[in-house]
Each structure stands twice: as C-alpha cells, then as structure tokens.
Amino acid sequence: MHPPLTLHRHPMCAEIIEQFQKCHLNHPIKKFFGECTDLKIKLDRCFREEKAVKRKANFEESKKLRARLQAYRKETADNP
C-alpha cells in the first residue's frame, strides 16, 4: 500500500507517479496481472528514499531544538 499519489506532496517521485498513473489508465485489465509492477517497485523505492531524506532532516532539526532547549534550561538555572 502506498500513500496518496499527489504530485505536490511527493516532488521527488513526481515523474514515476505520472508514469504509474498512465500505466493504470492505459492497461485497465492488465494492471491486475502485473503490467505495472515494475513501476510500482520503482515507486516504492522512491517513497523509501523520500522518507529517509525527510527522516534525516527531522533528526537534524530535533538536534537543533534540543541544543536550544538545553541552552535555555542552563540559562534559566543560572538566573533564578
């Protein structure tokens, strides 16, 4: 199962999403028998890469926030 295939939410995978949707439109019966499977595999890989990039960015942001919070706690502990 994949997330909703909206292009604005998945800019890294936009080209593959378009190809996958065209494949489903062009092959309404064959899609059930594996016609679009290769594109589905590419799409899943792209979503995994996209998620890894987002996870890394969120981790870096959390490190910055943690450092700011520790600095704030230290500052407030020094000035009662």
TrEMBL record:
| A Pfam family hit | Cmc1
Q: Which UniProt keywords apply?
A: Disulfide bond, Mitochondrion
For this protein, the record's PROSITE patterns field holds: CHCH
Q: Which domain of life is it from?
A: Eukaryota
GO cellular component terms, semicolon-separated: mitochondrion
Q: Disulfide bond: is it a keyword of this entry? A: yes
Q: Does the keyword Amino-acid biosynthesis apply?
A: no
Which compartment or compartments is the protein found in? Mitochondrion
Q: Which family does it belong to?
A: Belongs to the CMC family.
What protein name is recorded for this chain?
A: COX assembly mitochondrial protein
Q: Which organism is it from?
A: Trapa natans
